UniProtKB/TrEMBL annotation, chain A:
<dbReference type="GO" id="GO:0003677">
    <property type="term" value="F:DNA binding"/>
</dbReference>
<dbReference type="GO" id="GO:0003700">
    <property type="term" value="F:DNA-binding transcription factor activity"/>
</dbReference>
<dbReference type="InterPro" id="IPR024097">
    <property type="entry name" value="bHLH_ZIP_TF"/>
</dbReference>
<dbReference type="GO" id="GO:0046983">
    <property type="term" value="F:protein dimerization activity"/>
</dbReference>
<keyword id="KW-0539">Nucleus</keyword>
<keyword id="KW-0238">DNA-binding</keyword>
<dbReference type="GO" id="GO:0005634">
    <property type="term" value="C:nucleus"/>
</dbReference>
<feature type="region of interest" description="Disordered">
    <location>
        <begin position="111"/>
        <end position="137"/>
    </location>
</feature>
<protein>
    <submittedName>
        <fullName>Helix-loop-helix DNA-binding domain superfamily</fullName>
    </submittedName>
</protein>
Automatic annotation (TrEMBL), chain B:
<dbReference type="GO" id="GO:0003677">
    <property type="term" value="F:DNA binding"/>
</dbReference>
<dbReference type="GO" id="GO:0006355">
    <property type="term" value="P:regulation of DNA-templated transcription"/>
</dbReference>
<keyword id="KW-0539">Nucleus</keyword>
<dbReference type="InterPro" id="IPR059002">
    <property type="entry name" value="IBH1_N"/>
</dbReference>
<keyword id="KW-0804">Transcription</keyword>
<keyword id="KW-0238">DNA-binding</keyword>
<feature type="domain" description="IBH1-like N-terminal">
    <location>
        <begin position="5"/>
        <end position="66"/>
    </location>
</feature>
<protein>
    <submittedName>
        <fullName>Helix-loop-helix DNA-binding domain superfamily</fullName>
    </submittedName>
</protein>
<dbReference type="InterPro" id="IPR044660">
    <property type="entry name" value="IBH1-like"/>
</dbReference>
């Protein structure tokens, strides 16, 4: 969903450099090329991203549209120098070299700028283009992997962020698409599903729910209920004002062992007995009606007799301090 | 990963330090003010536990810092986490509406078959839900990709659970004392 925005960023960041590089390429391959013409090609490609096919067709080039399927804005800028170098025997190889050179330079350019995690996706798209050709994909893949590894070696010295992108080391599994686009997509999907599994363990009552939308719904509800609980509890703390002649040592004498307490949003706790204090505050309604009502009360772990069981005995002093505060 | 007892204790310590700082404002004011102070100190304590490693903690501190700047600064200096205030947040994601609208039109033109429509609808649902999640998690709008969002949500949920644990146990203890 950030493709458009990312593309925008890309355009703004590396605009001039791409133009300059295109012109350099054109000059290198075709010394007789006029720079205004090169600029014309480059500019028009950037402006009419979607109409590039038509433009090239009218230019009389019957070269296969290599990057036709991708929708990244980087496309037209990158393929223009290739399309204009008219066919020779080792045209494809040169094409590949220029592409990788472009990509490497672009990567280095991006390294020097502020790299945030948001631009990781753009980088992955750029290096995907390395392997995007439907023809001779295996050769390009092997070469591109080497190039990418070199790139990554260089870039790891410059920034640490690129080390996070591990699509380079992913191999296409048997029976799955070898397109690098889908590989990166698959990596991303796997990451997301991994995180979702963790979330499933964390959010109670999510074992039966499959699918991202339902899970996300549950997660949102859970987070909201936790936040509401915190509001409610802080209100209760503000109301409950222990008298100064409390003796907390008595309470602590009872606690011996610490046990990790699991969170149990328990609607029944709300209903029992505390609402009389909260009547004035107006928060009681919110908590009583809200809720994680379908939550299974059997999961409640805490014992009612040991309210302080979540703390170790060593921290008695801190608790007493707290008592004196309120 | 459920919250451990050590996490509970750390949170409690920081929270109490914060409450100490807030004490002068707590003593004489109304219930609502006290509640706000308690919640604020708890939130800041929870966020400072992460020491600025997570996005949501930084966003939370930013939010609270704008409201009660002086007190929050005091509290953070008490917890020795002053660096958190000045940490840079990632850029907020701004969606240029024209571009989004245009791309949506193009997408709508492409998919016409029934199965594709169902898939598109599912995608839309998921997108809507992720947007909802971004609204709930502090600093959600600043997270650029879904993977990061889910990771932050995980961490945030664990911190919320510790907070609820600690607060509830204190309230229960206090209640038990009162009833005695």
């Amino acid at each position: 969903m950030n493709g458009a925005i990312g593309g925008d960023l890309l355009l703004n960041c590396t605009d001039m450099s791409v133009l300059e590089r295109q012109r350099a390429h054109l000059k290198y391959f075709n010394p007789s090329f006029d720079s205004p013409l090169a600029g014309f090609f480059a500019d028009s490609s950037m402006i009419n991203g979607g109409e590039m096919d038509g433009f090239l067709a009218t230019a009389g080039l019957n070269l296969p549209m290599i990057y036709g399927e991708t929708t990244v804005e980087v496309d037209p800028r990158m393929s223009i120098p290739l399309e204009t170098t008219l066919g020779t025997g080792n045209f494809k190889k040169r094409k590949f070299d220029t592409v990788t050179k472009d990509c490497n330079e672009k990567k280095k350019m991006m390294n020097r700028e502020e790299v945030t995690e948001g631009e990781e996706e753009e980088k992955s798209k750029i290096t995907e283009l390395n392997n995007g050709s439907p023809k001779s994909i295996k050769k390009m893949k092997i070469k591109a992997k080497k190039e990418e590894n070199n790139c990554s070696n260089d870039s790891s010295k410059v920034t640490k962020e690129l080390e996070k992108t591990d699509y380079i080391h992913v191999r296409a599994r048997r029976g799955q698409a070898t397109d690098s686009h889908s590989i990166a997509e698959r990596v991303r999907r796997e990451k997301i599903s991994e995180r979702m599994k963790f979330l499933q363990d964390l959010v109670p009552g999510c074992d039966k729910i499959t699918g991202k939308a339902g899970m996300l719904d549950e997660i949102i509800n859970y987070v909201q209920s936790l936040q509401r609980q915190i509001e409610f509890l802080s209100m209760k703390l503000a109301v409950v004002n222990p008298r100064p002649d409390f003796d907390m040592d008595d309470i602590f004498a009872k606690e011996v062992v610490s046990t990790p307490m699991t969170v149990v949003p328990s609607p029944e706790m709300v209903h029992s007995g505390y609402s009389h204090e909260m009547v004035n505050s107006g928060y009681s309604n919110e908590m009583v009606n809200s809720g994680y009502v379908h939550f299974n009360p059997m999961q409640q772990v805490e014992t009612s007799s040991d309210p302080l069981s979540c703390f170790n005995v060593r921290h008695i002093y801190s608790f007493i301090m707290f008592h004196h505060l309120i | 990963m459920q919250p451990t007892s050590s996490m509970n204790e750390e949170f409690l310590k920081k929270w109490q330090m914060g409450l100490q700082i807030f004490r002068p404002s707590i003593d004489n004011t109304s219930v609502h003010e006290r509640k706000k102070a308690i919640k604020l100190s708890a939130d800041v304590a929870m966020a400072s536990l992460r020491k600025g490693t997570t996005c949501w903690s930084r966003a939370l501190i930013e939010k609270t810092a704008t409201e009660d700047n002086f007190l929050v600064r005091q509290m953070l200096s008490g917890i020795k986490a002053e660096a958190l205030i000045n940490k840079k947040l990632p850029k907020k994601i701004v969606c240029h509406r024209k571009i989004v609208r245009r791309s949506k039109k193009i997408l709508r033109r492409k998919s016409k078959s029934a199965s594709e429509e169902a898939a598109a609808k599912a995608k839309r649902l998921v997108k809507r839900r992720t947007q909802g999640l971004r609204n709930v998690v502090p600093g959600g709008e600043l997270m650029s990709n879904d993977v990061l969002l889910l990771q932050e949500t995980l961490d945030y949920i664990v911190s919320l659970q510790t907070q609820v644990n600690v607060m509830r146990s204190i309230v229960d203890a206090a209640e038990a004392e009162i009833e005695r």
